[in-house]
C-alpha cells in the first residue's frame, strides 16, 4: 500500500495533503482516484489507513479509517557524520532514515574535504533537499517518524552537546579501539551518539578530545570503510542490537 507523510498531526476523521510533489506523484504516477486506500503517517509518528475522498492538483482530501499509535522506541540513535564529497551526504540521509536513526548531524571536522559555506539561502536549500530525501525514505521503508536533520555542526560543538547521551562512540583507525560488538554486549543504553569520521579519519587530537568527553574509540573491523559505509554499518549494528 502506498504511504504518504502528513506534516501536521492528524486529528479527527479527515485530513488533507497539499504538497505539490506529493500531489503530482499521487495523480500522475500512481493515478489515485476517490475510494482508493492509502497509508498515512503524521508528525506525531502515528500511522493511519485512509481512503481518498477528493483529489485534484491543489489538494487531496482523505478520510481516516484506522489509527495505529506510535510504537515505543527503546533506544535513541544519533549519528554525527562527517560530510563526504560530492552528493554522498544525500545517500547517508537516505540510508540512515531507512535504518530508523532518530537524528542525523552533518559534521565538519579537521579533515573534511567539503567545507560548506553557510548562507541563509544555501542552508535552507540544503535542509529542504535533505528533508525531502528523509521523507521519501521514510515513506518507502514504512517508517512512521522522520529523523531530525540537524544544522551543520563542527566537531567541538558536537562534543559540547554530548553530555545527555548514555553511550558515546567514535570509530577510529588510531588509538586503543574496542570492537563495536564487544562494547554493545555490555551496554544497555537509552541513547547513543556515534561520530563518523571523514576520509583520512579523525585527527589524533580529535580522538583525544572525544575520549576526554566520554567517547569510546571503537573498531568496525579490519577493512577501512568509506564515510557512508561506516555510517550505515554503525547504525545497522545499533538497530539490530537494541531495536529488532
Which features would summarize this protein structure in a list?
Ribosomal Protein L25, Chain P; Alpha/beta knot; 2 domains; 27% strand; elongated
Description of the structure:
There is one protein chain. This protein has helices spanning 20-29, 88-98, 120-141, 155-160, 180-185, 204-212, 227-242, and strands spanning 3-6, 14-17, 37-42, 47-55, 60-68, 76-82, 103-108, 148-149, 153-154, 167-171, 178-179, 191-196, 216-219. With 244 residues, the chain is α/β, with parallel strands linked by helices. It folds into 2 domains: 3-68, Beta Barrel (Ribosomal Protein L25, Chain P), CATH 2.40.240.20; 76-242, Alpha/beta knot, CATH 3.40.1280.10. Strands 6, 7, 8, 9, 10, 11, 12 and 13 form an 8-stranded parallel β-sheet that branches. A 5-stranded mixed β-sheet has the order 1-3-4-5-2. α2 (88-98) runs parallel beside α7 (227-242). The model has no long low-confidence stretch (mean pLDDT 89).
List the helices and strands and how they pair.
Layout (H helix, E strand, L loop, with lengths): L2 E4 L7 E4 L2 H10 L7 E6 L4 E9 L4 E9 L7 E7 L5 H11 L4 E6 L11 H22 L6 E2 L3 E2 H6 L6 E5 L6 E2 H6 L5 E6 L7 H9 L3 E4 L7 H16 L2
* Main beta sheet strand tally, sense and closure: 8 strands, parallel
Secondary-structure element string: EEHEEEEHEHEEHEEHEHEH
How many DSSP E strands? 13
User: Helicity, in percent?
Assistant: 25-40%
Average pLDDT: 89
Structural class: alpha/beta
Query: Roughly how many Å apart are the termini?
Result: 23 Å
Strand content: 25-35%
CATH class of the largest domain: Alpha Beta
CATH architecture of the largest domain: 3-Layer(aba) Sandwich
Amino acid at each position: 500500500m502506498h504511504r504518504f507523510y502528513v506534516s501536521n498531526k492528524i486529528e479527527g476523521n479527515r485530513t488533507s495533503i497539499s504538497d505539490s510533489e506529493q500531489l503530482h506523484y499521487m495523480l500522475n504516477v500512481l493515478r489515485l482516484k476517490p475510494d482508493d486506500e492509502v497509508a498515512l503517517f503524521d508528525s506525531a509518528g502515528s500511522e493511519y489507513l485512509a481512503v481518498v475522498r477528493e483529489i485534484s492538483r491543489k489538494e487531496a482530501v482523505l478520510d481516516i479509517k484506522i489509527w495505529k499509535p506510535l510504537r515505543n522506541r527503546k533506544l535513541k540513535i544519533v549519528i554525527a557524520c562527517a560530510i563526504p564529497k560530492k552528493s554522498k551526504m544525500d545517500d547517508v540521509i537516505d540510508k540512515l532514515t531507512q535504518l530508523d536513526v532518530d537524528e542525523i548531524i552533518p559534521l565538519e571536522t579537521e579533515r573534511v574535504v567539503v567545507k560548506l559555506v553557510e548562507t541563509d539561502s544555501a542552508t535552507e536549500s540544503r535542509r529542504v533537499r535533505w528533508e525531502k530525501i528523509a521523507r521519501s525514505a521514510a515513506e518507502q521503508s514504512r517508517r512512521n517518524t522522520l529523523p531530525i536533520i540537524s544544522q551543520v555542526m563542527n566537531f567541538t560543538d558536537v562534543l559540547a552537546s554530548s553530555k545527555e547521551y548514555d553511550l558515546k562512540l567514535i570509530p577510529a583507525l588510531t588509538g586503543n579501539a574496542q570492537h563495536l560488538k564487544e562494547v554493545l554486549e555490555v551496554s544497555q543504553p537509552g541513547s547513543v551518539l556515534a561520530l563518523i569520521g571523514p576520509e583520512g579519519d579523525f585527527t589524533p587530537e580529535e580522538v583525544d578530545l572525544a575520549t576526554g568527553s566520554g567517547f569510546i574509540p571503537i573498531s568496525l573491523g579490519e577493512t577501512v570503510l568509506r564515510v557512508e559505509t561506516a555510517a550505515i554499518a554503525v547504525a545497522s549494528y545499533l538497530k539490530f542490537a537494541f531495536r529488532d
